[in-house]
Structure prediction request, 370 residues.
Amino acid sequence: MNSSSFLPRDALQSLIDVLQDRGYRTIGPRAQDGAIQYLDIDDVAQLPAGTGDHQSPGRYRLHDGTSPRLFAWANGPQALKPWLFHARETLWCSTRGADGRLSFAAAPVDERPLAVIGARACDLAACHLQDRHFVDGMTDPAYAARRRGLFTVAVHCTQPAETCFCASTGDGPRAGEGFDLALSELDDGFVVVAGSAVGQTVADALPTRTASREQLAQADAEIAGAAARQTRHLPSRDLRAALFARLEHARWDDVAGRCLACGNCTSVCPTCFCHAEQDVPSLDGTSSEHVREWDSCFSEGHGYLHGFQIRPEIRHRFRQWMTHKLGSWHEQYGRSGCVGCGRCITWCPVGIDITVEAQAICGDADGGNA
Prediction:
């Protein structure tokens, strides 16, 4: 499953066709509403040919270029999370019968297998962390069902954004695991590597040929170049001790003076999993749905427990987010919750940069893995 082949650019449609013939719903990157979004695709013409992106703190713009490449961009506002952990979904329903008794039923899950084309290395790492929570930890039936049917086609990143720092977290720009197929895009086509047995069966059905030594070398050089161009980094991959030793650092007040507590960072973060649940009754009172929705530790309601607000100030909420993401995740999942995608920096309306804040609070803290 480690041998490489080459798929000509004009044969990429065959990948979509093979996946759909095998019953997969295919989604991929499309330029829509000014951003790269993962949406349904059935034709390569829907992919963002020649499109690039410019990202910086608080800024995201797409631009047109002359390149024939389809994946010459870093990332969009969402990764795989919305397709596996839905932003809003019904978990179960209750119905009152004519005799007044209540009956309960789990909400149906669409188990049609999903194939994602264009997943980035950082997003596969985030998906693995979501698995640790929703499958290994609490065994969420809806998430687990969708995850079982997921076929991932990774595309190694060669065009990092200014806000990317996945190389420093060890999560990119090369996809190392968690994919069924991985593509390295060149001007004339794609170097293809299978990462699973089912991925190999799909690769065998494609009109590929043996990849040349020059194509393999170019693919490796472009991925290495993407890593070398990243300038942001966290002080260490393990900031537990440094963060929890600085809970009263003056920087928490400084960043709270800029933070709007809007929750954008948690909405675009591919690993955040905070959610709220509520019962939504029907107007006639005969049934109700138990609904789960994304929530954020930046919201007032998230910190409200039994009549007491445990995080009344923005400084408390920002501190909770950062100390959990970069600190206590190590206790839960054996690593940081940050995969270096940089989305929280790009999509923060005031341009707060997690790498800058971590440096300011933790200084030169080094857990040995910086």
About this structure: The CA atoms of residues 252 and 319 lie 7 Å apart.
